[in-house]
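Figure 2 data, in text form.
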Amino acid sequence: MNCSQLSKIAKNWAIENNYESKGGVVCIFQGQVQGWVKELPEPADWSPGVFAVSNKGVFLAVGGDAINGAKEWRSL
């Protein structure tokens, strides 16, 4: 998925769930929204491959593994 597609998924989810005015970060895995958090979370809280979409950009959780979580967020 590209950044535009991820941003569209996040925006639509925020509108549908009344989070549009709250800002924050929408986390997406395999094209499905997994949740919302106020700030970019620690990467270890999410598996590699999760995207975090906010008004600051799109980030990808990389490194690590599904058991121990990702090592870092990479800005896309």
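Caption note: The helical segments are 3-16.
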